[in-house]
Every structure is written in C-alpha cells, then in structure tokens.
Amino acid sequence: MSVDATLPGPRDGVLRPAPDDAARVQAFLPSPTVQSHASFLMPLADGSLGCVWFGGTQEGVPDISVWFSRLEAGNDLWTPAVRLSDDPTRSEQNPLLFPAPGGRLWLLWTAQVSGNQDTAIVRRRISEDNGRSWGPIETLFGPRADGGTFIRHPVVVLDNGDWLLPIWSCVTRPGEKWVGDLDYSAVKISSDQGLTWSEHRVPDSLGCVHMSIVDLRDGTLAAFYRSRWADNVYRSESHDGGKSWTAPVPTDLPNNNSSIQALRLADGRLAMVCNPSSAADATERRVSLYDEIEDEDPSGAVEAKPEPTPTPGARSTFWGVPRAPMTLAISEDGGRTWPLRRNLEVGDGYCMTNNSKQGLNREFSYPTVVQTPDGDLHVSYTYFRQAIRYVRVPLGWVNAGRGPAR
C-alpha cells in the first residue's frame, strides 16, 4: 500500500483557515530546502513573530544551515526565508531566538561534524534591529571535555536578572559513535548578561534531554524532558534559581524520544506540545538517528566510529518510535498531569528514515509554542521533514479537547 507523503498545500507562507476547522489558521513557511526541521518561534520586540529552523539536504549533512522568517504584526504572510549560517564543514542545527533584556536579539544554534553530536558546539549571532540584520558569527560554547553541547529551548530570565540556558551533553564511550545512551542535562547560568556562564548538572538525568524550563512564579522552576528511553516525559524542580534540581521523574505523558516544549500561560496553567507515543507503540527500531549517512568530516579531525554494542543490563536509546500525533496539552497542576489534550495533526508518524528528498519520512515533530497578549497560541512543527507548519488557535480550542486526545 502506498502512503501519500506530499504536503497538503504550498510552502508559500500564506496564512489560511484550516479546511475543516474555522478556529484554526495555518501556513507552511516558505522554506526553500529539501529538508526543514526543528523550528523555534519567538515574539519579537517590534510586535512581529520570528521563526528559525534548520534546513538543507538531510540532518547531519554539512549543507544543513539555520533559516529565519518573520510574520509581521497584523500580516497574513510569512516573509521569504533568509539563511543565517553557512559552515560547509558542519551540520548547523537546533536554532533558538532570545530577545535579551536591553533590546538585542540573540540567535543561538549548534554545529556538529556529520552525525557526531558529541562534536557539537554552540554558536551565536546578535541583531540590533529585531532580526533584520545580524552581526558576526561567534562561538559561545566550544568543545567540552565529555562531549558535545546541545540546545533546543528558550533562555529563561529570572526576576534577579539571571539568564538560564538549558543544555544537554552528548557523550560517547571511547571508540564508539554517538547514539544518545549517555546524554545528560544541565543548566548554564549567567549573572552578567551572557558574558560568563556557570554550569549546573541535573542529577540522575541520564537519558533526560531537551530540558524545557518554566517559571511557575511561586519560587519554583519546573523542567520537562524528552526521554532517550522513549517511555515518558519527565519532570524535575528547582527552588534556588536553577542551581540545583530534583531528579527527573516521569509524568503521565508518554514520550517517543522526540522533542517537547512547555510554556506557562497567562492564566497560570501550563501548555505543552508533544508526541504522546512511546516505545510501546513502536513496531520497528532504528540503530541510531544518523544511520543513513556516512561520516563526513572535510578536516579529517573526526574518525568514523562503529555503532556501540549494547551493554548488558543497561538502557539503550530507542530510535524509530512513530512521531505522531502532534498534540497540544494543558496542565492545571504545574505539569504533574496533563488531562486536557487535543491533536493538531494525526498520521502514522513514520520516522525509520530521515529522507525528505524521496518523501519517505512522515513525522510530525519538534514543536514549539508561544502565547501572544491576545491569548492565542502559536505553534510550529516539522511536517514530514519537508516543511515547517505554523498553526494559530485560540486558547479555547484546546479546552474543547478536554479528555482523551482527538
């Protein structure tokens, strides 16, 4: 049986009402590359909405670069995409935008050699005019002793002025290729507006990555994690401004070893976008995320390494769980439970391949969510690794989904 993996609409950036849902407005961003993935939304100081993502041929290939588009306030058209990075030796991934206090807009992203996430560094550009022009590319965090540094989620600014950047470290065993088994989370904290940073590891966070931090505004920071084991979304807390954390514990939301993002809403509740599926839903399993590409290191600095041999009795990263549905969930208890859920997208979520050129991948993944002052929720996510879909819904749209996701 053939499966249609074509986009249900043009990548022209035009906002249109969903054919079957008048409350939902959506668009495919004007991404010009074969593959588009890992989008990140952020309201900007000029009233526009910015979106960054990575695009190229395929994740891990050195033609992967960071792209940027904006939706001007009151407009119904995303601007043509602009490429903001172009290192021919590294795959540049997972961009995020940070409107820093004082008016400067930071762009952060990772840069790795081929599929070796243990080589990842973090780069930065700064804009003085809300992303219309950008300064030079700098390295914010270089190579670390135990692996690569990865980012995905927003910088959090505390009332005391501290900046918190959640990271995770991509670690390998000597002589083996990275697959994710030894990854752990930490928080970078700056008390001098990004000039210097200290690092604070999350205890017992092996396999808990993509840390998404939410300020509950009661002296508590809650963090939510993707699970390398593809079992559940995990949660931990900090009561000292991110310097120490409780060990992550599972929530009632399943997780498929794919990205999630959490947000505190204006009414105090939390929202999360995620794929509520797990290894229990999988019928196949991949060796690793980059099992389709050869090591490509033009400098020759990184040798090709074999995939690791599973360690008896140890947990191993689960790749290949379907990345669907794409669900918007609401919590009324600080993220411990998520009883309100409604699906933004449904499908088989096939992700045993990252191939976009031949239309083989059918995942909905890597979501991001923000709320604007009018209360609306804005979400973007990967669609078949071919495009970035943007969706705007009123908050009441989620409330209509009380109970099991539909």
From TrEMBL:
Its EC number is 3.2.1.18. InterPro entries: Sialidase, Sialidase_sf. CDD domains: Sialidase_non-viral. One of its GO terms (molecular function) is exo-alpha-sialidase activity. Residues 47-379 form the Sialidase domain. Pfam families: BNR_2 (PF13088). Keywords: Glycosidase, Hydrolase. Gene3D superfamilies: 2.120.10.10. It is an enzyme of class 3 (hydrolase). Signal peptide: none annotated. Residues 295-317 are annotated as: Disordered. PANTHER family: BNR/ASP-BOX REPEAT FAMILY PROTEIN, BNR_ASP-BOX REPEAT FAMILY PROTEIN. This is Exo-alpha-sialidase. It comes from Roseomonas acroporae.
